[in-house]
Amino acid sequence: MSNIRFNKMFYLAMVALCAISLTASAFGQGRSGGAGRGSRGGSSAGGPPSGIGVDRGLGNASTRSNGRSADGLSTASDRSNGRSNAGLDRARLAADNSRQADRDLRDHPGLANTLHVNANDLRSGYQAALAVNPNLKFGQYVAATRLAQNLNPRFPNVTRNAILAGLASGNSLGRTLQNLGLSSREASEAKKQAEREIKQGRR
User: Fold this and answer.
1) Which of 66, 69, 95, 101 is the most buried (most CB within 10 A)?
2) What CA–CA distance (Å, rounded) separates 179 from 202?
């Protein structure tokens, strides 16, 4: 009787041991399988697969930028450089003309007196005119000043600013005076008179 009881208990123990072994084996395979899937994906479970995300997006943007956007930026840069270079050329030309004016005033101190202004006012007025037209020579500014002084009482349209505007548009001094109401003969005589007076002031 005791042998039968012992055999039953031994049989139950063996069954329980097998069940525990099978459970442990299945659990281990499950963990191994999950890790394997993560390894094949190149990242842990839940993360993005390789080649997807920020890096891939930047790569696509770079490729597209090299197509349309890069050309647009290059064109904008070229245009900006064009404007910048033109601005530098204008500033350089204006600076050169301003230095020439300083030398002229230093070498001919009586010139400002001929125009009934002091040298500082003449210099500052010319610098303001250069900001509008950097091609303007100091001699042209002096001539425009003297012509306006001589002609304005008879021709109200003839002002220094009006003459300077005509020169800035590309017209000659004679054509500018004619556009302001003088005849060809009157413009020629006015220029000759102003030249004589300015020459006198340079002595």
Assistant:
1) 101
2) 29
Longest dimension (CA), the chain: 154
Task: State the helix-helix crossing angle for 70-107 and 138-151, rounded to 10 degrees.
Answer: 70
The residue with tokens 């017209």 is: 171
Cα 161 from Cα 168, distance rounded (Å): 10
State the DSSP H helix or E strand holding residue 153, giving kind and residue range, or none if neither.
Answer: none
Evaluate whether 123 touches 141 at the Cβ level (below 8 Å). Answer: no
Q: What is the CA radius of gyration of the chain?
A: 47
Q: How many residues would you count in the chain?
A: 203
Report if pTM > 0.85: no
pLDDT in tens, 6-41: 555 655 556 555 555 554 454 444 444 444 444 444
Which two three-digit tokens encode residue 52? 């997807």
**For residues 203 and 169, what is the distance between their CA atoms, to the nearest angstrom?**
32
